[in-house]
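Supplementary Note 3. Input sequence used for the single-chain structure prediction.
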Amino acid sequence: ETVTRVQNQLKNGNTGVDKRISKSNDIVVIYNRVPKTGSTSFVGVVYDICKLNKFHSLHINVTNNMHTLTLPNQ
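The predicted structure, written as discrete structure tokens, is reproduced below.
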């Protein structure tokens, strides 16, 4: 019952979130690289809600200790 109510609120855009939140350019970085902690599931949730909540998600695959952004990610 609760899940259905929340799903309906999300569909209708009625999340109860205060609309007066500042529209500044705040940046939130979530670094999630701890093995066996649900990282893949967490990324899936982020991708599911990013369009709904009007934010962007950038997945950077860091392999072989290459800590630079590719040209498309810059």
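Residues 32-59 form one domain. The helical segments are 2-12, 39-50.
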